[in-house]
């Protein structure tokens, strides 16, 4: 039985946090900001819409460029800085060789996320992707996961998994879609909310867990007994 593994992208397959730190250093040098500017950028980027973040950046550093232009420049640059976690392509290849279908379900802008998928080589290692801005849905909405399965020519099944680093987006979304969930903690303690079915500290460990998971058993259809009356007869 073929199973579907739906992976988050940022900080699950790719090290977005590391890329953001490199971008912050470049940004600070480009605009000749104070020495502590890069550290402020990293600490201030705690989630939420990026357009609001860059509006705040523009105001804090009194920049002449509009926030929309700063954001567009970031979207163009960050895919060039993003790197995969070590062994990602090999790990996904292991799952596919074992019969898994691999999908990516990610929140974000289409141009930004698609550039990451292609520049890192993930496009050749997966069976498809679903990007929130293109779909008009965002995790943890379960419809995004259903759409990801439909784009692969299938439907979600109880043996399918959602794997990601965000408790509120990936794990909650997986529960909403009634799927199995695997949280990549990166060493963090579980915060609050309905816990994941399984926990891993890294993608390598997550793939190992999936590889060892037994496939769900198909329900057998018992043939009728020879002496049983045909359906619809007395």
TrEMBL record:
Source taxon at top rank: Bacteria
Region (Disordered): 212-234
PANTHER family per record: PTHR47478, PYRIMIDINE 5'-NUCLEOTIDASE YJJG
GO molecular function, one term: hydrolase activity
SUPFAM superfamilies xref list: HAD-like
Protein name (Swiss-Prot/TrEMBL): Putative hydrolase of the HAD superfamily
Keywords, in A-Z order: Hydrolase
Classification via Gene3D superfamilies: 1.10.150.520, HAD superfamily/HAD-like (3.40.50.1000)
């Amino acid at each position: 039985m073929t199973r579907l593994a739906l992976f988050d992208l940022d900080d699950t397959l790719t090290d977005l946090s590391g890329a953001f730190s490199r971008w912050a250093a470049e940004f600070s040098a480009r605009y000749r900001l104070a020495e502590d500017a890069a550290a402020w950028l990293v600490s201030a980027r705690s989630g939420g819409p990026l357009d609001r973040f860059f509006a705040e950046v523009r105001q804090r550093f009194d920049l002449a460029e509009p926030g929309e232009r700063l954001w567009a420049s970031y979207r163009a640059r960050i895919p060039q800085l993003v790197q995969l976690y070590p062994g990602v392509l090999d790990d996904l290849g292991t799952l596919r060789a074992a019969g898994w279908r691999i999908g990516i379900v990610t929140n974000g802008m289409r141009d930004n996320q698609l550039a990451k998928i292609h520049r890192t080589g993930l496009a050749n290692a997966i069976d498809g992707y679903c990007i929130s801005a293109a779909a008009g849905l965002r995790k943890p909405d379960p419809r995004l996961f259903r759409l990801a399965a439909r784009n692969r020519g299938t439907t979600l099944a109880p043996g399918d998994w959602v794997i990601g680093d965000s408790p509120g987006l990936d794990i909650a979304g997986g529960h909403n879609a009634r799927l199995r969930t695997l949280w990549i903690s990166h060493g963090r303690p579980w915060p609050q909310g309905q816990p994941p079915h399984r926990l891993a500290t890294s993608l390598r460990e997550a793939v190992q867990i999936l590889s060892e998971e037994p496939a769900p058993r198909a329900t057998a259809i018992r043939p009728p007994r020879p002496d049983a009356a045909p359906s619809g007869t007395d």
